[in-house]
Amino acid sequence: MASSIHDLARHLNISIGTVSRALNGRADVNADTRQRVLEAARTLNYSPNQSGRSLRQGATHSIAFMLQPHPGDQQYGEPFFIPFLIGLQARLAESGLDLIVVMGAPGDYQQERLRRVVETRRADAVLLAWTRREDERIDYLTQTGFPFATLGRSRSGAKSYPSLDLDFEKAGADAVDRLVARGHRRIAAVRPSLDLNFGYLFLAGYRKALRRHGIEIDPELIASGFINEAGGYEVTPQVMRSKAPPTAIIFNNDAMALGGCKALAEMGIRPGHDMAVTVIVDTPLCRYFSPALTAFRPALEPMGQRLAEMLLASIPAFAGPEGPRILREVWPLELVARDSD
Amino acid sequence: MASSIHDLARHLNISIGTVSRALNGRADVNADTRQRVLEAARTLNYSPNQSGRSLRQGATHSIAFMLQPHPGDQQYGEPFFIPFLIGLQARLAESGLDLIVVMGAPGDYQQERLRRVVETRRADAVLLAWTRREDERIDYLTQTGFPFATLGRSRSGAKSYPSLDLDFEKAGADAVDRLVARGHRRIAAVRPSLDLNFGYLFLAGYRKALRRHGIEIDPELIASGFINEAGGYEVTPQVMRSKAPPTAIIFNNDAMALGGCKALAEMGIRPGHDMAVTVIVDTPLCRYFSPALTAFRPALEPMGQRLAEMLLASIPAFAGPEGPRILREVWPLELVARDSD
DNA sequence: CGTTTTTCCGTAAACGTTTACGAGAACACA
DNA sequence: TGTGTTCTCGTAAACGTTTACGGAAAAACG
């Protein structure tokens, strides 16, 4: 059914070696024969068998994005990832690489699936997201020497892998600055439980800014829950029950903000009127919520492209002769002022 | 670095054939040698090279889910898909298959990427979603004989492929019935443009139910736009400007509902008070929106599992000796009554 | 015209598996 | 003891590529 390189060779009465060289654009093949080979490839509808070339070359020409679920999260936080993946895939396609997204069941941390990808050599490199403070996936990969990069920083590993992250610390501080400038002094922070690194970074910025403004940090105004709607819904009442309730809340995430706003609504508190609300990572939800939520916007698609480049440079088989590998980059989040604060 | 079957053979002083047979659980191998092989595999940290076995067996042991973007949609409708994919992946894993998600750039209809997957034999079968009324992808696949299944129906193809769909027609009718029972007579419908099949089905049910209630269908109350927040936001004012504005709106999708509710809010119309709002496909957004949106809920995870089974049965290499292949199934959507109508 | 270089192509090995085939050894049976 | 059966394993081919190597023909050069 599917035509192989042998079919082409037989059809043209030349050897398979020549066919392969012609298709791969090698120099030592006559311009005329190459023409004929390419033409035959088109008419016979030939395209190379991936397993064959992977086996021979020891490279799969694909990279794996590990889509990691969190306990209590049925959505994988993907409204965030999709635009990122679009950029990633576009850049990879330029270099002839495929992007495969590897999913796991919620609750397992993919150590198993990651092992599987690495050991069966299903991809030439993997891309990790939602890095944790201490991330065993990173330890595993550095230890095995398998090429990888991360979306997000971590304290794990030899710090010698490419990573791209957003400046959550500055965003957290900027959010506080803005709220303080608008007269708020009691500002709450709702962040993910677990040791997701961006939660730490956000909180660090939040703390630093408060301290800079001479505002004492009230632990009662800091809450953490599942990084989804349910988490925000569950946890927001906690900060509202504090002895001196906040006049502003910063949510780490759009889903948590949605849940939090629901909890507020049930208490008769209207975001944008009775309570200032800020979200760190902007999504379409923030824009179309009523009131529209002030948020910090990442440049997701360019980030995807950039991380693709960084990843490519770290794969021996694809790294060009260019200079040194790019390592850590931290990109800014841009404030989008809307109606909720 | 990575150990191959040859390493095992050398280490145990037996032939690679025996090693392979032992690992694959064939009968013609001594129980003792099998034990030794499995042990050596563990200590030498062996796992089979995928490219090797794919090449030999002519099967990749993976199936491809084509994540198809729509023009104007940066989010791919994924809050819908993720739970589905979780179920799908779980069932596939049981049979030793990997799920790979193939993405494309928004705006292209993946005919190209689909070709690529099929022709390079990167997967043993593909899974299509967001089927269109006339779907060239289905035509292509039936024509080439490549195994596939679809999430959603279509008029294309020989109708001899497995498909699983939701009963959007009944949901549309049920939504109308419920609203009529609550006293509404002027009911609007906001659905996707393009010829996405579920948009047609929904509208068919809507029409049928209105007719059954003796309510004349007003074309001014039917609008279509991009299947995302922007689409709902843009299109909802249209139906509101009709000569006799609606007292209820049914949205085909959570994102469109979000955009639509924003448009309503800007007109000073409060969902649940001044306007009944119903959504066909339930998501966490519907639940945590204020007011919580009445919606029709699909059993996404079981659907994923079921479609995995249907797909498996259609792959010659994996189809068990069971009876006839399962073809079309239509699953119900369950009403979740909340506060918006 | 003889020698060297270049151009082009065929041969064959290799990547890591699986599996059809056959053969030796052990055993059962008459 | 001879014959047939069963158990176990080794041999080698095959899957579809890529590529190192060498060689024939053509071109260049003296």
Q: Largest protein interface? A: A-B, 57 and 57 residues
In the CATH scheme, the class of the largest domain in chain A would be Alpha Beta
Oligomer: homodimer
How many separate domains of chain A?
A: 3
Count of strand segments of chain A: 12
Distance between the termini of chain A: 63 Å
Tell me the Rg of chain A in angstroms.
Answer: 25 Å
What would CATH call the homologous superfamily of the largest domain in chain A?
Answer: Response regulator
Query: From the helix content, strand content and strand pairing of chain A, which structural class follows?
Result: alpha/beta
Order of helices and strands of chain A: HHHHEHEHEHEEHEHEHEHEHEHEE
Strand portion of chain A: 15-25%
CATH architecture group name of the largest domain in chain A = 3-Layer(aba) Sandwich
Average pLDDT, all residues of chain A: 91
Helix content of chain A: 40-55%
Number of helices, where a helix is a run of at least 4 consecutive DSSP H or I residues of chain A: 13
**Could you say which overall geometry of chain A the principal axes of the C-alpha atoms support?**
elongated
Largest sheet of chain A: 6 strands, parallel
| CATH topology assignment of the largest domain in chain A | Rossmann fold
Topology, element by element:
Two copies of one chain form a homodimer.
Chain A: H1 5-12, H2 16-23, H3 31-43, H4 50-57, E1 62-67, H5 78-94, E2 98-103, H6 111-119, E3 125-129, H7 136-144, E4 148-151, E5 163-166, H8 168-181, E6 187-192, H9 197-212, E7 222-225, H10 229-240, E8 248-251, H11 254-266, E9 276-279, H12 284-288, E10 294-297, H13 300-314, E11 328-331, E12 334-336
Parallel strand pairs in A: 1-2, 1-3, 3-4, 4-5, 5-11, 6-7, 6-8, 8-9, 9-10
Antiparallel strand pairs in A: 10-12
The structure holds a DNA duplex (30 and 30 nucleotides).
